[in-house]
Design a protein that fits this description.
Layout (H helix, E strand, L loop, with lengths): L1 E5 L2 E4 L11 H14 L8 H20 L20
Protein name: Centromere-binding protein ParB C-terminal domain-containing protein
Length: 85
């Protein structure tokens, strides 16, 4: 079963859309890094590269703060971050 996020584009049930704010300079650097290295890094897509980056940071925090165990997840809303500048 697939969910439809955009017309003509199906997404597997184990994936979701994530929306967040990112500093414009960091976004530009990340896009450039993706464009220049996507083949050698075998990134399937921009989302794949971003997922790998998030996974690396989550793993670092689990190792540092939770004895390398996964944190317990829940579906509560996260508190809002600082306002967009």
């Amino acid at each position: 079963m697939h969910q439809q996020n955009h017309p003509g584009h199906s997404v597997p049930d184990d994936r979701t859309t994530v929306t967040f704010y990112l500093d414009l300079e960091l976004r530009a650097r990340a896009r450039a890094a993706y464009e220049h290295t996507r083949v050698v890094e075998t990134d399937d897509s921009w989302s794949h590269m971003i997922g790998k980056a998030v996974s690396a940071e989550v793993g670092r925090r689990e190792e540092l703060y939770n004895q390398s165990h996964r944190f317990v997840a829940d579906d509560r809303r996260l508190p809002p971050g600082r306002p967009v500048r």
